[in-house]
Design goal:
Shape: elongated
Helix content: 55-70%
CATH superfamily: 23S rRNA-intervening sequence
Radius of gyration: 18 Å
Structural class: mainly alpha
Oligomer: single chain
Number of helices: 4
Order of helices and strands: HHHH
Largest sheet: none
Low-confidence stretches: 1-8
Strand content: under 5%
């Protein structure tokens, strides 16, 4: 039987299935739970946006906010640490995109300063959690 190094790629075959497979339940991760709560908030906000934004801002905001939780879920459902790190990085990037959309909403007076501050703080908290998780993963990959 072939001995696998820590990382040999993304494709599974009968020759490279890891001996120790650990797929985590993503629903237990606080960052995932918070990203699901954030998505609810964003959905409530986009319902109130003017019709002119239905195919632009609304679509992009929904895609970005749901991308956070879906990337976390997909990342924690993979066998490989490096692939998991890629998905966590994608989730962090989606958080950054959401912060930009919040600012657009604030500048266009679609949301109040209080709503902006809460959304921004919640998203920053998720980013920090994901960054901490990414640092942990990176340390495991290096060792």
């Amino acid at each position: 039987m072939k001995v696998m190094k820590k990382w040999e790629g993304f494709r599974l075959s009968k020759d490279n299935i890891p001996e120790k497979i650990a797929v985590n339940d993503f629903r237990t991760l606080k960052a995932y739970q918070k990203s699901m709560d954030l998505a609810k908030e964003v959905y409530n906000i986009v319902k109130q946006l003017p019709d002119i934004e239905k195919y632009a801002m609304v679509n992009q905001m929904i895609r970005a906010c749901t991308s956070i939780s879906s990337n976390v879920a997909e990342g924690l459902s993979t066998f490989y640490d490096k692939k998991r790190l890629v998905f966590i990085s994608n989730a962090i990037e989606s958080c950054g995109e959401m912060k930009c959309w919040y600012e657009h909403c604030l500048n266009l007076e679609y949301i109040s300063k209080e709503q902006f501050d809460k959304l921004d703080a919640d998203t920053t908290e998720i980013m920090r959690m994901l960054l901490g998780y990414a640092k942990k993963l990176r340390a495991e990959i290096v060792s």
